[in-house]
Amino acid sequence: MMERWLVITRIALRNLRRQLRRSSLTASAMVLGIGFLMFVRALEGGAHLMYVDTATRMGTGHIAMEHPDYMGSQDLIDRIAATDLATGLQAVEEVTRPEEVVAVFPQVNLGGLAQSASSSIPVRIAGVDPALERDVSFFADKVVEGRYLEPGDRLEAIVGVEVAERLRLELGSRLVLMAAGAGGELESQLVLVTGLFRTGVPEVDRGVVQIPISTAREWLELGDDATSMSVILASDDRTGQIATSIRERLREGGVDTDRIAVRPWWEAMPELYAGLRADAVQTYVMLVILLGIVALAVVNSILMAVLNRTREFGVMRALGLNRRSVGAMVMVEGVILTLASGLAGMLLGLAVSLGIFRDGVDISWLFGGDLAFAGAIVEPVISPAVLTVDVVAILSIVMAIGILATLYPAWHATRIEPAEAMKTDE
Amino acid sequence: MTSKSNCSASNPAVETHELWKTFGEGETAVHAVQNISVTIGTGEFVALCGPSGSGKTTLVNLIGGLTDPTRGQVLVDGRDVGAMSERQRAQLRLDRIGFVFQAYNLLPVLTALENAEFPLMLRGVHRDERREEVSRLFEHIGLGGLEDRRPGALSGGQQQRVAVARAVLGAPALVLADEPTANLDTQASDALLEVMEVLNRERGVTFIFCTHDPRVMRRARRIIRLVDGHVERDAEKESGDLPSWVLEPVET
User: What is the pTM of this model?
Assistant: First the structure.
């Protein structure tokens, strides 16, 4: 049996070498197709990692803990009590290793009105911890005028550039924020514009005002309560797992899901998740069409090789090689060709992704002035990221092409009748 | 027509019963083999002669299970070839039958040695054993030193000898040879025929040749003459002389 496989493999390999030009052309299609797939996936993987990273750092964190009704009501009644925040923090510490967590911080987020001497507009008011925010979010880097909030600030605020334009604000301008406080009464707070930021995300630049969380708590009479607590992780790999563990630990600590909802970012930011999914589906559709064409080239090449060797297959059948072995010989030939060229394509994709474009690809021209994707900031340069899941998926695709594209030619070879085949001309 | 060999009819290697092979249908139908019933005993050395188109190759293909009869039955070693599955037929050919085809039909990607040992490889014969057997035979039939050449680098005669070596190596029970000496000079033909005679004599291998070559027919101990798909004459012969009817022109 072993001898039979050896001779089948030997003949398959020599036939590939014998048809060097045809094999090379088919292999080139595979190398380029798979190389392109690898590069596109690496670029997309890198982009998605970036979207998730910036969105989680500027928004809800990888995991958001908030009152279950807050997402819908945006009302301070639906906030997390200070004691529950402490339980939540303890839960995070218990279910994670220290190196897994970048930061855990409470936020006060609510809708309100911003009024200047000239106008008033609706805004999102974010009460943040200036020291933590500077480390984990990108707002400090996006300040285009003035400065970011600092520990010790009390009445300072930073606003989006378009907020400033609409309210005709300058650095040092006074701004009155109005919102419903913990007691349900309308409360107002005077702040001074100390910085302007431009993130590139229109809804942020047009409608966000950041103030120190201590000021927000004092103004809205929240004590140590908060509307949410964000967990920023070092990697997105275990987000779902950690969210589940936190949920379980909170339940054990007596904090039920009617008091704190623990949401991974894809639940907390459904629009971003939907955008990423749509992006991935679009890429897959394009790549499936491309690889379908490549697979047809492989089918054509192997089928031609079989048709040209009808006489040889007839001889082998006459000498005692059964149909199954003849089919196996064609399969081995096709799978070796696709596997070898597929692996070469993967190496090419890796070389392009991590070699030529290791410093990233500038995509700012794609987005014009607005560097945003589904509410997430897009950095102008994307660094390709080769994910294990993509390597495994592409390897599976290569194997699938090899097997599927060779099935028909192999079946055709098994149908060859020895006596008839030996009448054909080479 | 029914014809039987006297020598080993009790232990036949091949039997055909009312065998027909028709190509095409209706008015264009060609009866390549018509109602042939022959019995060839184990250890016979038989020549099938007759003009081109008389059905020799078709009969050999039917005996080897390479094509299905339109009617009738073929038995090899007493087993009905028509009743076998494709897999069983392939195994029968591999284990029991050696073929020499009209064209050399060597596999171009294999060397002369690999072509010759191909059936032995499929049978799982150990490499050292195969190589020893091939080398010995190659030396004997003038192919020594050509083991590593591909068919494209061999002359027609050399390719024919490799094809014969492939058929007889491992001493199959039955060798079906279609014009095995067609491209060979006298010396090479004699060397090959000697090898076959030794195998026939010493190991009881049954040989059935399709041939026009008087040298082959002289060595045969039985000659069957086919004309238009029928057995016209079937006779055993004693001496090395050829019966006059062997080379008679076909009456029209």
Answer: 0.73
